[in-house]
């Protein structure tokens, strides 16, 4: 009888692999976790949030408005401030893609990804994505019965030639009609820390447009910009919203959760029609709108420039922590391990020699645990793509939440484990 | 090409009818809206929330914890306090149904309803529900391609005989295997203000159990208790969780949003396995957890008894507003209009003479608008049930958000419109 209890979606949905890792960390108090994507505790704007909330709640009328339902779409002032801010980040192109009435406020960008996927994809559809990519998005696709196809990454984003060859082969097999979107984590990607160049966003959009006729419907670019503002080196890349003539194909998902405070859950999406209308209706069914109090908090943070001030401090802090991790990696990791120096985000992505497996079932993962250090095995970030083999010699290590001391000690422990594993071969 | 853009779910999902009504209200500044399900502005705990948030944010460590991610399931202290509170409301039965580890915190009870429906129902499944019922839940079912079948209401809840005859006829046609749940808004129901007696919850659960063998799977009772604490007269009824031996069939969805502050969105669900695990995983994909800051706020409110104090004041206020509405209804509504005096909640449900239609397309609805007063047409609260005709002579009028002055004036206007309509026949 048990077999039939759940819906197909309910039966398919798996707990995200990270929750298993987090439980592991909680059950071992001496463990140093370089696994979690949590942000830095000391960078959290406790004092600022206190003051901002006081500004709202000290006024009876502002307070009442913040504690009452808002609209499903989200607070108009917050949408205007956010749209203006995005427009400015993208260097003010002449474009209607930054209109506040195209924006919907969500519970973090995570909910926006869920809503967009609900509105766009049926079971059996295909989403193309980076190989590797954000594992929770892989979980969303898997739970909804949507297939994921991985596209190789280069130093500046997707390998466009490979994107084309995948589209071409899907066209040949008649499967292009199942392709609904390309999903990119375009800034300091989780897990690789790679940022997609504006040129590649343009190229991807052009390519998708060429295959739409054969697909029989639009193919959207979902740009997940969750880490955009966590840049601590170099200049911002423009988003896909700034690609001329592509506004009706770009879905931009952003958030205030990662750059400001993960305990408040305020994200947003810029959406073209007819997706905008569908996502708004589905959001109405989910929760008829994100907490008005949290939205007012972000409105105040933007209006008073507390948000911008906070970003400056946070960037200095992450730059320093990334520097600490970089230095200790150089000191303690064996010379045949490679990694990319991130310009932002929360992660280093390390590639071991190909024969050294480091997945959850590997001897290396167990040795690391025995040495009381935890990382995210890279294999978790690869799609179950029948056409590609999962890579199993990469790891994500985060400098986000760990203290500088723990970063040093954790990387040192991991370095010893790696040295032993490489020597043993 | 447009036809294929959205998923089946995306294409099916409609904006909730209430959003059309709310836009109408916003566009007509002189309109008195007795339509919205908003709570009373003056009852919102602005000062209390300010103090509670200060208690959290004045401490660096508490503040950091509130501004950081929590777990997907929700804050353990909040779950313990909430589970204890429910247990106490249900008069402390010996039961494992109130264990905090069966509870998941959600963004209002609305999200819990969405998650449960995702975990339980496939397209083509059937949910039995009250006739009339909460229209946003009807929207969830419609968007997911789930059929709704209405069961007549009596003064103390579902007509159990009719529930049985519907189950029997579904069994005969071989459709019982499609029935996944019965959905009840069991306290001061939206829209009728009817409270389901404990006896009827028992009877419904017994009946469902008898039909499970023929269904081939469990049939759950979803108890939506969103209005439970908005009682201002009489004693609380026990929830279905207190029905002995039924813990594995009851899903209880509650909220702090309606009774405390709708602008904070903290709700919860008590769930039996295997639903608990499925809903937790789906919640992880939605947003990996409700805002920790809002959860800490509710934890503080419960720990300091501010919540309980607030309930007392709010109940006095709603009792008074309901009294004002009752009196003016008696004074101004024609004698052949009937309504139930609510013991709680936010609504009066008025039944006009059968030949007076009051749906959105009716002359009466237009006359009411011309007289600058808005109500919710009852027809919106009926399922698209092929086996039953929609009732079209009922209306929901709310005393929640309108001031006492507006309640008096709004009902007076509506009374005149009704008197003219009845006289014209």
How would you characterize the overall build of this protein?
By secondary structure, the first copy, chain A, is of the alpha/beta class. Helices cover 43% and strands 14% of the residues of chain A. Chain A has helices spanning 8-12, 17-27, 46-57, 60-67, 76-89, 108-120, 135-143, 160-172, 198-215, 275-287, 292-303, 306-332, 363-370, 404-424; strands spanning 32-33, 103-106, 126-131, 147-154, 157-158, 179-185, 220-224, 250-255, 267-270, 338-339, 347-351, 373-374, 376-377, 394-398.
Brief summary:
Two copies of one chain form a homodimer. The first copy, chain A, is α/β, with parallel strands linked by helices and 425 residues long. Helices cover 43% and strands 14% of the residues of chain A.
Helix content bin of chain A: 40-55%
Radius of gyration of chain A: 22 Å
Counted beta strands of chain A = 14
| Terminal-residue CA separation of chain A | 50 Å
User: What is the chains' assembly state?
Assistant: homodimer
Spans of chain A of at least 5 consecutive residues whose pLDDT stays below 50 are: none
> H/E element string of chain A?
HHEHHHEHEHEEHEHEEEHHHEEHEEEH
Q: How much is the average pLDDT of chain A?
A: 95
Shape of chain A: globular
């Amino acid at each position: 009888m048990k077999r039939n209890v759940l819906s197909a979606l309910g039966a398919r949905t798996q707990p995200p692999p990270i929750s298993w890792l987090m439980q592991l960390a909680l059950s071992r108090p001496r463990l140093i976790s370089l696994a979690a994507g949590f942000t830095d505790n000391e960078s959290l704007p406790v004092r600022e949030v206190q003051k901002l909330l006081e500004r709202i709640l000290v006024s009876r009328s502002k307070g009442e408005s913040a504690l009452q339902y808002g609209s499903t779409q989200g607070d108009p002032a917050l949408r205007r401030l956010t749209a203006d801010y995005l427009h400015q980040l993208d260097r003010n192109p002449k474009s209607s893609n930054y209109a506040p009435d195209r924006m919907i406020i969500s519970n973090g960008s995570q909910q926006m990804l869920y809503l967009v996927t609900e509105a766009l994809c049926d079971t059996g559809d295909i989403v193309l994505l980076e190989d590797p990519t954000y594992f929770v998005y892989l979980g969303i696709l898997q739970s909804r019965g949507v297939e994921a196809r991985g596209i190789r990454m280069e130093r500046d984003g997707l390998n466009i030639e490979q994107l084309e060859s995948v589209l071409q082969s899907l066209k040949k097999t008649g499967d292009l009609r199942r392709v609904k979107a390309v999903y990119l984590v375009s800034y300091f990607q989780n897990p690789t820390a790679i940022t997609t160049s504006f040129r590649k966003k343009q190229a991807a959009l052009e390519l998708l447009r060429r295959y739409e006729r054969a697909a029989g419907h639009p193919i959207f670019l979902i740009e997940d910009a969750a880490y955009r503002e966590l840049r601590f080196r170099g200049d911002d890349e423009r988003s896909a919203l700034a690609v001329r003539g592509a506004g009706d194909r770009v879905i931009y998902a952003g958030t205030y959760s990662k750059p400001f405070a993960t305990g408040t859950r305020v994200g947003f999406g810029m959406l073209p029609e007819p997706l905008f209308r569908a996502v708004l209706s589905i959001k109405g069914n989910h929760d008829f709108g994100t907490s008005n109090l949290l939205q007012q908090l972000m409105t105040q943070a933007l209006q008073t420039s507390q948000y911008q001030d906070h970003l400056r401090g946070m960037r200095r802090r992450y730059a320093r922590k990334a520097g600490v991790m970089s230095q200790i990696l150089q000191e303690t990791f064996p010379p045949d391990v490679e990694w990319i120096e991130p310009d932002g985000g929360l992660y280093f992505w390390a590639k071991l020699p190909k024969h050294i497996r480091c997945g959850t079932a590997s001897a290396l993962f167990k040795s690391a645990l025995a040495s009381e250090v935890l990382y995210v095995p890279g294999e978790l970030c690869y799609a179950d793509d029948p056409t590609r083999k999962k890579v199993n010699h990469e790891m994500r290590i985060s400098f986000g939440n760990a203290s500088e001391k723990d970063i040093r000690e954790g990387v040192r422990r991991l370095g010893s484990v790696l040295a032993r594993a490489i020597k043993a071969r």
